[in-house]
Amino acid sequence: MSSSKLLGGTDTDSGSSRCSQSSDVDLVLEEVKEESHGKPLSTWMIMALTCPNFGLQAAWLLLMSSGTPHLHSLGISDAVTALVWLTGPLFGAFVQPVLGRLSDRSRHPWGLRKPFILCGASCVAACLLALACTEDLTGDHVGVGTRPKMAYGMMKKAERSHLLTQGLAVLWVCVMTFAIQAFQMGVRALVVDACPPAQQVRASAWSTRWNGLGSVCLALVGYADARWTLFGVEGSARIKTLAALVAVSIAATVSLMCYVVPDKPRDQGPVEEEKREEEDDDEEDEEQTLWQTCRSVWSLQLSRQSWESLPPISLQVCKIQLVAWMAWFPITYYSSTYIYQTFVISDRVHLGTRDDGAFELGQSDYRLIEVARLCGSFSVLSFASVSFLTSLCLPAVTGHMAARRRRPNRAWHDVGGMPLSRLLVHAQRLLAFCMFLTLFAWTVPVATAIVSVAGVSWAVSMWVPFALINAEIADMRNPSSALYVPGEQAGWILGMHNMAISLPQLASALVCSVLFKVFESFRVLDGVAWAFRLSGVAMLVSSRYSGKLESMGV
Predict the structure, then answer these.
(1) Basic and acidic residues compositional bias: what residue ranges (predicted)?
(2) CATH superfamily of domain region 304-351+361-553
(3) Which residues, 6 or more positions from 450, have their beta carbon under 8 angstroms from its beta carbon?
């Protein structure tokens, strides 16, 4: 109905006009609501959005599984190698929050997240290839019997070349662990940006599935290589081949995501006056932005204020992760070692008694070392496979979440009627139960079964916390929500969450080192099993924090 008819109509017409106006207002409100929540994405779009997690997970697992043997093959000591691997949790705790804040404030024409994703992914792929080919880059193939000319005093050319190879290898690892933070932050934040609140749980489930698939692929290759020696006798052939494949997977998945998924620059679209004022302030203080952001993370007082400013669900999830990752660190890093130690202390690895004179009682038969390593590789494959299957099956019932969100009496953050918080509690208690079962695991099959069942808890722990945080961040962008906050917060909040994951890994690594040293002095052969039992205690404590989420309505 036109405006002229509305102004010149009769009383009967005015009644119908009011109805028409009311319906028009409802339509406008519905459009505003749909715009604020975001347009729902198809399944294929969500898969394309989250597929970079495959390459990211594959790169990280390759670095963790093959990085240490490769560094040792270059003559780098255990002490230096341990310090190099500390860069991962250090950068995760103190660099990713800074990158997240910078991403929220980005004005790049490519968007908020894509510059960080592209730069991080390119550096990860390039450093991974460079690490695998370090000896080829430096020409460090000097034979033992050669006598090259002297240079720089008493240092031989071969020695200089070898030191250069070691230095470059350490450099590639450090740059790669730094770049992974930008890559990971960008991928996680883009999921929050692109998906409406009702699809955050589903998108997080697909992220977990891609992570699980990457783990299965790397674990399968590792097991096949341990069993059939796929890559020949050359020491660097394995890491070179896998590095090339992982680099290709990163390039393919990131290219697909960037082509399919839009990432609008910060200053596009409607911007509130308050947001414009914030942008003007940012322009005035542009030179101080990086320093102020670093101080907000690295300063103890300002970091505490940042923690307290987190939204309630995100803050509670971070508390959960601070305790939970004290438990997850030894489980994820020492599972294969646990199977190896179980194999060593079983009867099959002893050659006889002390009277035989060949070996002392309890010393392993070195002819069975490869068998023990094969068992360790199989346990890693079992853990990854169970985790992947869980990520496929468990979130499969989340297809009705969008419909449930439209019902005021039903929560969107539940699975088949069970709140996600309760699901997390059950998963953590299951893991604690498995860790306590190591007291009775005297054979490799039982130990492998325990590690495999832990994969169920791992899948839930990789899905539920991120789903809850992502959904809360998405709700913060809705002007009608009580949590509404103007401006971008996704990168910052996800960075603080990553700090809550990384800091306990540093503490757990220190505790494990001291624990293993004590057990070694007392000649305890199953030190990792005792670390697992302590992890069970930590996970029970974490489950108490998880239980508080349900009282918050999650």
Answers:
(1) 265-274
(2) MFS general substrate transporter like domains (1.20.1250.20)
(3) 434, 435, 437, 438, 441
Tell the residue number behind the tokens 């460090």, with chain if given.
140
Q: Which of 386, 390, 346, 335 is nearest to 368 (CA)?
A: 346
Tens-digit pLDDT profile for residues 279-335: 555 444 444 567 788 888 888 888 888 898 999 999 999 999 999 999 999 999 999
Q: What angle do CA 23, 25, 26 make, to 5 degrees?
A: 65
Would you tell me how many other CB atoms lie within 10 Å of the CB of residue 174? 16
State whether residue 416 is helix, strand or coil.
coil
Backbone phi, then psi, for 500, in 5-degree steps? Answer: -65, -25
Q: Note the pLDDT tens digit of each residue in 214-250.
A: 999 999 999 998 888 888 666 678 899 999 999 999 9
Fold adopted by 40-140+162-261: Growth Hormone; Chain: A; (1.20.1250)
Runs of H (alpha helix) within 229-309:
237-260, 273-284, 286-298, 300-308
| Separation CA 303–CA 285 (nearest Å) | 20
C-alpha span between 232 and 222 (Å, rounded): 13
The counts of H helices and E strands in the chain are: 22, 2
For the CA atoms of the chain, what is the radius of gyration?
27
**122, 202, 257, 262, 400 from 47: Cα distances, Å:** 21, 10, 9, 14, 18
